[in-house]
Each structure stands twice: as structure tokens, then as C-alpha cells.
Amino acid sequence: MTSSSDSTSRSMAAEAADKAGVGVGTRTGAGTGTAPEHRQRLVIFAFLMTAMFMATLDNQIVATALPTIVGEFGQLERFGWVGSIYLLGSSAVMPVYGKLGDLFGRKYVMMAAVLIFTLGSGICALAVSMDALIAARLLQALGGGGIVTSIFAINADLFQPRERARYQSYASLMLMLASAIGPVLGGFMSDMFGWRSIFLINLPIGVLVLTGLGMMLPHKRPERTPTIDYLGAALLAGCIASLVLWADGSQLFGGLFSPTGLAVIGAGIVLAIAWVQVEKRAKEPVVPLSLFSSKTVNLLLLISMASGSIGIGLSTYFALYLQSVTGLTPTVAGLLFVPLTGGIVLGSLTAGRIMSRTGRYRPFAMLSSGLSCLCLLAISALHPPVTLWLITPLMLFHGIGIGVGQQVPLLGVQNAALRRDTGAATGAVSLTRMGGASIAISVYGAIVAALVAHSAVTLPAGLDLEKLSPAVAAGLPTATRDLIANVYAGAFQVLFLVAAGIAALAFVAAFSLKEERLEVHSGA
User: Quick one: which H or E segment has residue 122?
Assistant: First the structure.
């Protein structure tokens, strides 16, 4: 009788530990039997942040250097593919890397991602044509997508849920730092050392990260027998690739609803249906369908998609808004991103520390979406002339809104998922965030392009409103500049109202969440 009771207790403890995210007899499950010591975990975290900085910085640098690259290779019509192919490749592999980490352990999966990214960077630097560069960027993306997903999954192994909230805020800070200095560094390196240097800089960083993780990160291979769902992975990758291609339809096919664009999204729908059928029967599905049986997880994934739409998707259009509506120079417009970035950092660090103490994340999801919605509504109501003392505090509070809720979907989904599915759950959050950003960028662009194209503004001969640069616009008569500002203000009013609607939808989802807390485990 005692033996039966002990067995039942151990079974219940194992099930609870699986749900909570720790293995029985371990502290976090990150190591081979016990978790790394706190100092070792901090060193590992530093190497992970270096890898994240490398992958994030690369995208920002490449965006700045693209005009120089086009100047050498030509083929301007393929300009957009250098960025689109990276987004396509990295998005497609995010859930796959998450599942591989669940099956084989995260150490070598993470190291494989860093190695692929580093090799891809070296091949990018050796490219002799635009086609070769695009192909190398795809290889680089196959590693970059795995780096981001694996880092957040490893953090879930290293730190308990409440402690994790604080460290995830540092990861957000690293992302913002890379985003802030990337454009400047890209331009400087292209001018001083040539565009190939922006890829070569990744080689020593990649080697450093590989060495550090190889020496410091313990390897724990899950006890279950690995079974790879090849068909499910292929179908999911095809579905994601179709979605990303369709989202870039305005640039690649001439419109979201062009015949080619509709064919692409139609193929994606067919692949998605086939993927669901395959996953129902798969022994180890790439993304377990049981994950979506949780109302909490579904709401958090919706919030994650909205976060990508607002936090990432709007960044490009803020620059255009500031220059076309307020008449600011590119330099001054760039400086106005300081309050936006500063707000994100402030909100993320503050929310991370409070969540670490209280374990509550629902209030931050509501605060984030609510504050962003109000700020976007306020910006949409501004009319030329827009003064800096009006737009600057709105940019700051919008940044705080983004930062406060940036970690919520990831922490909440990891907290709700079983430990065996941590990587798959992390990949799902990363994917929805990037998917939301991709679709939003395309939709925002279509809104602005359509409304500007249908304007009735008459410009001097030889000038095209849709191709008017800030420098040329600055030389036009005051009355003409005012007309142009009003046209763009009308277009951006609709854009910001759409973005505010997305934020309002996220607020409803956040309000619908259960009042749950991040778990606290002994020995954390």
C-alpha cells in the first residue's frame, strides 16, 4: 500500500514538474542533472545576448547598406528580395528549431543555428552578384531564425518563470540597442570598409559565441525517443513561406490581391489544412495541436501577432510620417526615434522587474495595448503643422506601451505549455510576432500607396508625388509643401486608425485572459 502511494506521488510530482517547467530532481532542467550555478547561468546568458545582438544587428546594418550593394551589382528590381528572403527563411524555420530543441536538447541545436548563420555571413561577404547574395541571405536566415527561437527556449531552461521575466527584459534591451545603432553602424562600415565588412564582422562574433556555448552550456538530452515529423515540418514551412510571400505581394507581385498574390495565399491555405491533418496523426508534431486547445495560449498568440504589427510593423512608417507630414529632415526624424526606443527600454525593464516580483502579466498586456491604442488615436488626430512638442511625448508613451507588453506573450505561453513543448511554444510565439509584422508592413504600405496615388495634388512638371524625396520636397514652394503634407497626413490618419484598431483588438484579448501568475519554484 505504501509503495503504491509513493508511486502515485512520484507520478503526480513528475506531471506537475512537466507542467511547471522543471524536471524532478533538478532545479531548472538546463543541465545534465542539476541546473548550472547562478554565475554560470549569467555567463551563458551573456553569450546568448551576444548571439541575439549579432543576428538583430545584421538585419539593421544590411538595410542601410543595400543602396551601396545595388550600386555595385545593379539589378534594382531585386532590391527587396535581399530583405524579403531573410524574413521568409527565418520565419519558416522558427517552429522547426523550437521542436528540434525539445527533441534533441537545446545546446547543439543552438550551436547549429549560430554555425549556419556565421557560414551564411561569410558567403554573403563573398557574393559576386545580387542572385548570389540573395541565396546566401537565405542560408543566413536559416540560422538566424533558429538563433532567436533557441535563445528564448534556453532562457526558459535557465531561469524560473518569475526570474525569467527580468532576464527577458534584458533581451528586449539588446534588441533595441541593436536596432538603434544598426543603421548608423551600417552606413559607417559601408563608407569606411566597404559593404562586405558588414557580413565579415559576424565571423569573429560567431566563433566567440560557438566557443562560449560549447564550453559553458550544459547539454541535457530529453529522455523521450526523438521522432522527427518531416512531412509536418515541410508543410508548415511551406505554409509560412506562402504567408510571408503574400505579405510582400505589393512589392513582389504588384499587389496583395493580384492573381499571383491570390494564388500564393491560396496555396498557403491548402498547405495549412494539410498540415493540420498530418499533425493530428504525428507522434511528435512540430507544433502540438494540443497547444491551441488552451484559451490562454490562443489569446496570447493573438496578442503576440498584434504586438508584431504595432511594435515592428509601424517602425518603418514612423520615419516616413515624420518626414512627409512634419517636414523634418532624415537626421532630425531619426533623432525622434530616441524617445520611442527609450520608451520601449524603460517599459520593458520596468515591467520585467515588476512581473518578476508579482508574477502577474495580465495587467501589463492590458496596459500595453491600451496605451498604444490611445497614443495611435492621438497621432491620427494631428494635422499639419505638427509640432515636435506634440509628437515627441506621444512617441515616448507609445514606446512605453510597446515595451511594457513585449515579454507578455512569450512568458505567458511558456508558463501555460508543458515543459516538453517549451521549444515548440516559443517558436509559435516568435512566428506569430513575425507574421503579424510581415502582414502589417504590407497592409500599411498598401494603405499609404493607395491614398497617395488617388490624391488630386498637382506638382510641377517632372515630379511624381509617390517618388518625391524629402530633399526635393524641401525645395518646393511653401504652398506645395503644405499640400503634400496634407495628402500624407490623410493617408497616415487611416494607417494609424487601422493600427489603433489592432491595438484595441489586443486589449480585448488581454482583458479576456484569466488572472494567472507566473510560477515560483523552490530552488530557483
Answer: helix 106-125
Say what the pLDDT of residue 467 is.
57
On whether the CB atoms of residues 408 and 365 are closer than 8 A, the answer is yes
Cell of residue 94, nine digits: 522558427
CA distances from residue 524 to 351, 359, 415 in whole angstroms, order as listed: 20, 14, 15
Give the per-residue pLDDT at 503. Answer: 94
Residue 397: predicted pLDDT:
93
CA angle 162, 166, 167 (to 5 degrees): 110
Residues 6+ apart with CB under 8 A from 240: 91, 92, 95, 431, 435
CB 378 within 8 A of CB 394: yes
C-alpha dihedral over 365, 367, 368, 373, to 10 degrees? 120
Calpha distance 379→499 (Å, rounded) = 11
**Count of Cβ atoms closer than 10 Å to residue 381 Cβ:** 10
The band of 447, judged by pLDDT with boundaries at 50, 70 and 90, is confident
Region 13-25 average pLDDT: 40
- How far is Cα 141 from Cα 414, in angstroms, rounded to an integer? 24
Quote the cell numbers at residue 211. Answer: 566557443
Q: What are 360's strand-pairing partners?
A: 517
83 Cβ partners below 8 Å, 6+ apart? 59, 62, 63, 66
Is 0.70 topped by the overall pTM?
yes
Number of other residues whose CB lies within 10 A of the CB of residue 119: 18
Phi, psi of 55 (to 5 degrees): -70, -40
DSSP class of 78: G
Q: What is the DSSP letter of 200?
A: H
Beta strands (DSSP E) in 34-98 are: none
Distance between CA atoms of 234 and 330, rounded to whole angstroms? 43
DSSP character string of 144-197: HHHHHHHHHHHHHHHS-HHHHHHHHHHHHHHHHHHHHHHHHHHHHHHHHH-TTH
The SS3 of residue 400 is helix
Residue 360 has what DSSP assignment?
B
DSSP-assigned states of every residue in 419-467? GGGHHHHHHHHHHHHHHHHHHHHHHHHHHHHHHHHT------TT--GGG
In angstroms, rounded to a whole number, what is the distance separating the alpha carbons of residues 199 and 420? 36
| CB 97 within 8 Å of CB 109 | yes
- How is residue 309 annotated by DSSP? I
Q: Over the chain, what is the mean pLDDT?
A: 78
Q: Give the amino acid at 382.
A: L
181-186 long-range contacts, CB within 8 A, separation 24+:
181/57, 181/60, 182/56, 182/57, 182/59, 182/60, 182/61, 182/63, 182/64, 183/60, 183/61, 183/63, 183/64, 183/334, 184/64, 185/57, 185/60, 185/61, 186/60, 186/61, 186/62, 186/63, 186/64, 186/65
pLDDT per position as a tens digit, 489-523: 888 899 999 999 999 999 999 999 988 777 655 33
